[in-house]
Design goal:
Distance between the termini of chain A: 31 Å
Strand content of chain B: 25-35%
Shape of chain B: globular
Order of helices and strands of chain A: EEHEHEE
Oligomer: heterodimer
Largest sheet of chain B: 5 strands, parallel
Strand order of the largest sheet of chain B: 3-2-1-7-19
CATH topology of chain A: Ubiquitin-like (UB roll)
Number of domains of chain B: 3
Helix content of chain A: 10-25%
Distance between the termini of chain B: 50 Å
Number of helices of chain B: 10
Strand content of chain A: 15-25%
Largest sheet of chain A: 5 strands, mixed
CATH topology of the largest domain in chain B: FAD/NAD(P)-binding domain
Radius of gyration of chain A: 12 Å
CATH class of chain A: Alpha Beta
Helix content of chain B: 10-25%
Structural class of chain B: alpha/beta
């Protein structure tokens, strides 16, 4: 289990523990964190699980695939250098302490 | 507190309706009855990652217990609703108990169409709708020597791809003259046929299955009307879906291969709404269409919730859909059915292309393979009624995003 902090669109901070192999999207949506739609269920096909990644562990993240980059071009909220799709980030122990900020809108 | 809003069905549509009701400000109870024992889960991976054992079942959950508690949505899993009573504003559960409701949403989904031929109920003959179906098919793929898929639609082809990934011998039998005949353009059908041939799937079109032959209760072969016989120890049937509209029909709601709804998810009874696979949508010109997709389920669920709160939120967005087969991510936006011209971007040979479809010079649909950016752009163009020209599409140096920025006329 790795502890991750989500910051919901209204500003509330929610800490959840995520098992290795789960994506940020899967854990957040199933546990009721606000701010992710994830209409396609994690197929990298809808760009509605956009998030901003903050904190030192972000350096351990694998770089986005070409597919993810193309989808990030189409997110509704502002695309920033730390924009990612939360369905493409799988949990691993070296991400302990990661902060995931939700945008104001997904669609 | 007043009576609850009751949602019959715990799939994508029912869940979307419940979630949207809370977002729209409904304060009283919301109750979802689901026939399956699970919390709402994503079905698309059932013919993809879950079937291959790459995604565990828990990760398919769309919303879990924490969500339902937080949103005060009561999820009654493994509960079957046996009747709805529009005049009494109540539903009847299969144990005979009744529950009053302030509003009702039918989101009862669809079920696989049955073959209805000799041998269709032999052991080793399966269709795919639920988690359990997928687990069963996945386990049988591991033991099978010869897999025969009946139906060259999306589910059949995704199962074929999964079985090939496991190294099984796979034959696809399609009754029509091309794969994906109901949903894709001939060009995409050809591409998909080549894709599967390249991975060793033997897809046979114009193959009308006449019967399944068994031995000791288990399937052994599939026979076609032209006298051919294909050995099989696993047969997966993917020949379409049938809307679960029985509750609505028994209650006297208008149905025609689905519960008939308008753009705001209203049924023929103004107090009852329906969303997702169980519906047939009545369009302005009177035509009926059925869409079986996550997008349709979610958007109709949201529209139903809005309508229950007294708001019109018609769902008019261009339909979109995706399918993952091998390393091809196929995404479709709009429709190609009525196209009179098409223009290509990218390369089909390199599994990286977009086909833009036009009718009377106006963009009506775009199919992409491994070009998700084009897919997203296509949805924006279609929703804004913007059209590139064929020349613009055919020119790889023209950036189609410019059309959105400029807001060119339709």
């Amino acid at each position: 289990m790795t502890r991750i902090t989500f910051i919901e669109p209204q500003g509330a901070e929610v800490e959840i523990d995520i098992a290795d192999g789960w994506t940020l999207m899967q854990a957040a949506t199933s546990q009721g964190v606000e701010g992710i739609e994830a209409e396609c269920g994690g197929s990298c096909a809808c760009a509605t699980c956009h998030c901003y990644i903050e904190g030192e562990p972000a350096a351990h993240l694998p770089t986005p695939t070409q597919t993810e980059l193309e989808m990030l071009d189409n997110v509704v909220a502002a695309r920033l250098p730390n924009s990612r799709l939360s369905c493409q980030i799988k949990m691993a122990p070296d991400l302990e302490g990661l902060i995931v900020r939700m945008p104001e809108a997904q669609s | 507190m007043g009576e609850p809003i009751i949602i019959v069905g715990a799939g994508q549509a029912g869940l979307a309706a419940a979630e949207a009701l809370r977002a729209e400000g409904w304060r009283d109870e919301i109750v979802i009855y689901g026939a399956e024992k699970h919390a709402p889960y994503n079905r698309p991976p059932l013919s993809k990652g879950y079937l291959l054992g790459e995604t565990p079942a828990a990760q398919l959950t769309i919303r879990g217990a924490e969500f339902f508690a937080k949103k005060r949505i009561e999820l009654c899993a493994a509960h079957t609703v046996s009747a709805i009573e529009p005049d009494a504003h109540s539903i009847v559960l299969d144990d005979g108990s009744r529950r009053q409701c302030a509003g009702l949403v039918l989101a009862t989904g669809s079920r696989p169409r049955e073959l209805g031929i000799e041998g269709a109920r032999l052991s080793g003959v399966a269709s795919l709708r639920t988690l359990e179906d997928s687990a069963e098919i996945g386990a049988r793929i591991d033991r099978a020597d010869n897999v025969v898929v009946i139906g060259g639609g999306f589910i059949g082809l995704e199962v074929a791809a999964a079985a090939r990934k496991r190294g099984r011998s796979v034959i696809v039998l399609e009754a029509m003259d091309r794969l994906l005949a109901r949903v894709a353009s001939p060009a995409v059908s050809e591409y998909v046929a080549r894709l599967h041939a390249g991975h060793g799937v033997h897809a046979i079109t114009n193959a009308k299955v006449s019967r399944l032959v068994g031995e000791n209760g288990s399937v052994r072969a599939v026979e076609t009307a032209d006298g051919r016989s294909f050995p099989a120890d696993l047969v997966v049937v993917g020949v379409g879906a049938v809307a679960n509209d029985e509750l609505a029909r028994s209650a006297g709601l208008a149905c025609d291969r689905g519960v008939i709804v308008d753009a705001c998810s209203r049924t023929s009874d103004p107090a009852i709404f329906a969303a997702g696979d169980c519906t047939a949508r009545r369009h302005g010109d009177g035509a009926l269409s059925r869409l079986e997709s996550v997008q349709n389920a979610v958007e109709q669920g949201k529209s139903a919730a809005a309508a229950l709160m007294g708001k019109d939120r018609p769902f008019h967005a261009a339909p979109w859909f995706w399918s993952d087969q091998y390393d091809a991510k196929l995404q479709m936006a709009g429709t190609s059915a009525q196209a009179d011209k098409a223009a290509l971007r990218g390369s089909m040979a390199q599994n990286h292309f977009s086909l833009f479809y036009f009718r009377g010079g106006k963009l009506i649909g775009v199919d992409t393979v491994n070009r998700p950016g084009d897919h997203m752009l296509a949805r924006k163009l279609l929703d804004a009624s913007l059209s590139p020209t064929i020349e613009q599409v055919s020119n790889p140096d023209f950036d189609l995003k410019n059309l959105l920025a400029v807001g060119a006329p339709a």
